[in-house]
């Protein structure tokens, strides 16, 4: 029995030792020689006169897809949506409402005086009523500022467009230099 246990322990240790050596081999870094930019340029015979650059129109179109110009485009769209909201602002002056009811109304009355005994009178009637209404409220401050608000929002749309054009021109100038 002792020999079997000793054999199993030896096998376990040798297998563990083999796997540890395999892991060491995997983790050892491979040394590579350092390659500098001068080595690359020295080995390459580059004829700079034959290099063809893309046309400026391609560079300009690539500049249009930059995130900064896309942000400005989204800002312009937001300002246009706010302008359309400002144009519909007059709808806030109109209000409408309605109600309907159905039920039984009860009236109980009592009469008495010196010559007559106490008389109770009960009247119950079924009633139906309905009401439809509408209204127009005119806040004069908002009414007189409708056109001004629309003009201000149009100016905001123009400013957003000009910011986008300015950023595009800046990118064009930086791509040329």
From TrEMBL:
A molecular function (GO) term: efflux transmembrane transporter activity
Domain of life: Bacteria
Protein name per UniProt: TolC family protein
Taxonomic lineage of the native organism: Bacteria, Pseudomonadati, Bacteroidota, Bacteroidia, Bacteroidales
